[in-house]
Amino acid sequence: xxxxxxxxxxxxxxxxxxxxxxxxxxxxxxxxxxxxxxxxxxxxxxxxxxxxxxxxxxxxxxxxxxxxxxxxxxxxxxxxxxxxxxxxxxxxxxxxxxxxxxxxxxxxxxxxxxxxxxxxxxxxxxxxxxxxxxxxxxxxxxxxxxxxxxxxxxxxxxxxxxxxxxxxxxxxxxxxxxxxxxxxxxxxxxxxxxxxxxxxxxxxxxxxxxxxxxxxxxxxxxxxxxxxxxxxxxxxxxxxxxxxxxxxxxxxxxxxxxxxxxxxxxxxxxxxxxxxxxxxxxxxxxxxxxxxxxxxxxxxxxxxxxxxxxxxxxxxxxxxxxxxxxxxxxxxxxxxxxxxxxxxxxxxxxxxxxxxxxxxxxxxxxxxxxxxxxxxxxxxxxxxxxxxxxxxxxxxxxxxxxxxxxxxxxxxxxxxxxxxxxxxxxxxxxxxxxxxxxxxxxxxxxxxxxxxxxxxxxxxxxxxxxxxxxxxxxxxxxxxxxxxxxxxxxxxxxxxxxxxxxxxxxxxxxxxxxxxxxxxxxxxxxxxxxxxxxxxxxxxxxxxxxxxx
Amino acid sequence: xxxxxxxxxxxxxxxxxxxxxxxxxxxxxxxxxxxxxxxxxxxxxxxxxxxxxxxxxxxxxxxxxxxxxxxxxxxxxxxxxxxxxxxxxxxxxxxxxxxxxxxxxxxxxxxxxxxxxxxxxxxxxxxxxxxxxxxxxxxxxxxxxxxxxxxxxxxxxxxxxxxxxxxxxxxxxxxxxxxxxxxxxxxxxxxxxxxxxxxxxxxxxxxxxxxxxxxxxxxxxxxxxxxxxxxxxxxxxxxxxxxxxxxxxxxxxxxxxxxxxxxxxxxxxxxxxxxxxxxxxxxxxxxxxxxxxxxxxxxxxxxxxxxxxxxxxxxxxxxxxxxxxxxxxxxxxx
Amino acid sequence: xxxxxxxxxxxxxxxxxxxxxxxxxxxxxxxxxxxxxxxxxxxxxxxxxxxxxxxxxxxxxxxxxxxxxxxxxxxxxxxxxxxxxxxxxxxxxxxxxxxxxxxxxxxxxxxxxxxxxxxxxxxxxxxxxxx
Lengths: 549, 334, 131
Hints:
The complex is a heterotrimer.
Chain A: H1 7-12, H2 43-48, H3 70-84, H4 86-93, H5 106-111, H6 118-133, H7 135-142, H8 146-150, H9 157-167, H10 175-179, H11 186-199, H12 205-217, H13 225-243, E1 250-251, E2 258-261, H14 265-268, H15 272-290, E3 294-296, H16 312-329, E4 333-336, H17 341-354, E5 380-382, H18 383-392, E6 407-411, H19 414-418, H20 424-433, E7 436-437, H21 464-470, H22 472-485, E8 489-492, H23 495-508, E9 513-516, H24 517-524
Parallel strand pairs in A: 1-3, 2-3, 2-4, 4-5, 6-7, 6-8, 8-9
Chain B: H1 3-24, H2 28-56, H3 87-100, H4 102-105, E1 108-113, E2 119-124, H5 127-145, H6 156-165, H7 177-195, H8 197-202, H9 205-227, H10 232-243, H11 255-270, H12 278-284, H13 312-326
Chain C: H1 3-17, H2 19-26, H3 39-44, H4 51-72, E1 76-78, E2 84-86, H5 96-99, H6 103-113, H7 120-123, H8 127-130
Antiparallel strand pairs in C: 1-2
């Protein structure tokens, strides 16, 4: 674990000079190593959704307790997915192994493990595909040495284990896809591989348990309705202490204008909680000033979707709650909070899976009159789109000075960047609530952004070495602006980032804090009737209010 | 490890020798007529089957990789090419991708400097892009120039291309630029595979084989034009015979030509079963050829099916007491 | 991309690949020129190269001649068959075109057929045209 491995020791391990030899031969020597893998899914979590082969098992043990016909299951599973997904079929066929993607992956850059090159990660699965599904593969099987020549191999238990190990070392960040001349998206291949693993019950617990929680209690963390309310009540008290204003939100309010959905991580853990308080402050402000009625729901209390890291079907089952609840409550449209993969799901999948949302209206901001044409069908708006629109129209009274102690940079989260293109909206918001903003180097932001190293369900505790290695490219860039401009706050619009980047900073750049964008909005926003604030949402003194020593 | 490239290299040599010796031994009809026809048939049938196979697979979700600012609020400048929301934007993105290899143009090279700065640094890495572009365009020019062997009279556009390709007017017969660029680019791509450790590690025999094959084709072609010389009137009689479906084997066709033709035929026949199918695939990649407007226009999944979900009613039934106690609204009071 | 677009694109591709075949069906195809010895050449029975080498390598020979004549003032070429020839493309009876009188048949027919555009005639003139 990285707890045992210092940053220096981790850096010592990096070597981009790959060993010689044929990677097809190294399958057996792959060891599922502590610090690099996540624990196996608990059977009860797999059972909640009725997914196959629930049992307790351990990746480091020899016997994975697979069904006898597991090879057939995988074979049929690949076949089915080749028919269902053109992406999968084309990505299996057209890679020319040019190597452009090789050094684009944060896990390769952080570990130097050649099987973390995106091309090779995909080749693990492609070698099976070529062997079992292509004419060339079938011919080569008959020639001695032919399989090796084409890089083909049969699906053995060792191969399965190797695939499992490496497809749970991919955060589906899509950075490789930006550089691929054919747009081959390793995220898509990882999604397929993980679907296949789930056919055998080979999920990791950090994904399976949140999925199970989300299904029954409405959110990944399994926060039950009364507890959810308790937690928000707690924030309301804090906000009242700081501002003197009661920001109590609506829950499941029928006929509200807008349903608000955000990842449950923001309700649960710092520093996401401050972002959550920012939402409460914003909604209070809009209610007081403009009469906008926003409601939360304890049923649809999860924006994120770990089903996305399990299978398309699971993703759909978890996502269904948003429309279901919006319809029941009779709101006009849905507003979504700051989250990464949540927005990939909403932007590129939700309407297709669970739409059409013809019971909702095309989103209009009633305060500014702006019609959100870009979400005309899905009817769900990103909160930074919403807030940016409010600021642009001068509808928010902001005191930038309250964030004067924050020297900001912004981490583009993979999914909003490469699965949506939400780049300038959060920057616009930051620049309007804070005076000091510096970009990280261009190769590490916007569409070139680096993953936090913990996405796609890999933000567990037991794989910390992997996470910190994967975090290195982001940390390097952050350290650069920290040293050059004195950056002390890393802004982000993703709940997993808020948790993962905090760990990253602690490990690699301890002087930097992580903050959600709406935490800064919450600090800057001048609530009607507020008392003079002396503390920010972290209950630390505002600039100029520090106590004299 | 070395067998990954030694076997393909040997295979290309042997294939050439088989045709070279075979033609000398009176098998010209096979290498000059039967096999080329078979190769063209294999190419077309294989290509069509492969692409139809791709077309048959569904595109359930609209999942473009977005490489720029989305279309959102009217005052935020959208990147219409790298994040297109319209068909015309997608068209331009695809043109740039197919004809200028835009994604590859972005390529960077990462380096980690342990001990000195402990930083990962990135530099622009243009050579792969240059070589790839040079290779593909030189190959295209060479291919189109060969229409002089398949048309009579030769259309002026082909003659114009020849004049352009031979614009340096060097030597006799005049040097074609494509004849220099093509082998040079192939050698660069080959050198990358052999000497760049990462690329060497990911390369398979099936990556070296087409390179050696194309190199073999280029070298035999260059030899025929500049060095050993062949009777091209006889060769054109033969190629014209092929394309007018009245094949003949004229006297005086050099064995070297049979070697050249056989390697070309192998390339054609091998094409659909190999990674070379990226020629078709580049048009079809759903991460590039779709507009990023999924929230604005609903994309329909042809196999979308109903799934069991946990309804609000089930949820309320489960938590009703706790919800009532916490003062949360419920549908049913008991 | 819709299936129809893919099928359309595929049809275009197949047509392009088959273009050498259908192009010759829809246009009139000229046959290969038949070499024919006329006039003085018919009687001469000797030439600078034998037939096959003449067909494959005459351009190299002319290139060598040009260098020999222009740079070294060397005007006599002794062929493999032992006969000596005047190194000249188009001047006088003892030149290529002096013997092979019909440029159109001797040079142009094959050059046109194979789309070769030699720059000989940038400087040289067909003696027939001078008269």
